[in-house]
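Case study 2.
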Amino acid sequence: MHGKIVNDLLVLADKKFAKFNAALLPDIDSSKILGVKTPALRKYAKNLGNPDEFLNSLPHRYFEENQIHAFLLTDIRDFEKCVRMVDKFLPYVDNWATCDQLIPKVFAKNTDALLSQIKKWIKSGHTYTVRFAIGMLMRFYLGENFKAEYSDIVAKTKSNEYYVNMMRAWYFATALAKNWNEIIGIIKNKKLDAWTHNKTIQKATESYRISPDQKQYLKTLKTR
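Prediction:
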């Protein structure tokens, strides 16, 4: 099955698009990027005959295989199975694109049960597992589902990894848009490291969901 999938992907591959993608994914060996566009990968995943066989064939060689894996996990309807398969896959995630496109639909309906897994993933030490955990907190635990303990978890997550701290900034910029009153104190009191603090402000001031007055105030909170 694995050989057939790779052969199918090679048929769909575009060398120019592979070069474009390689520039966006500097942490991946360019030889592992075939150049298949996302819509084609989604369609391929949807039509894959025996997904469990593929999901159990880790690790994969190509970026596109990991993308297909993420898309397959997204559509698993059984929560416990999905968590188990995501947990198995996360150590092999090696780039921000696969990480950020892994958004299992079933998680949205099981946020109480998911929280314990998020707390485990965020302590893993693996860059993209931590990024994934923060992404889940951003997607499912803001707005009406927000609790201060969730933003505290992200604030206290210390890392030297660019892709972790970029997700932390994305989280807080989104949180400012959805839970301004609860989050602004974290920015005002400079509870984040300087890079994440300033990147949060930058991303928030670029957001259409933040009012002009709020943006102006955020700009006064930049640090050096």
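The mean pLDDT is 96.
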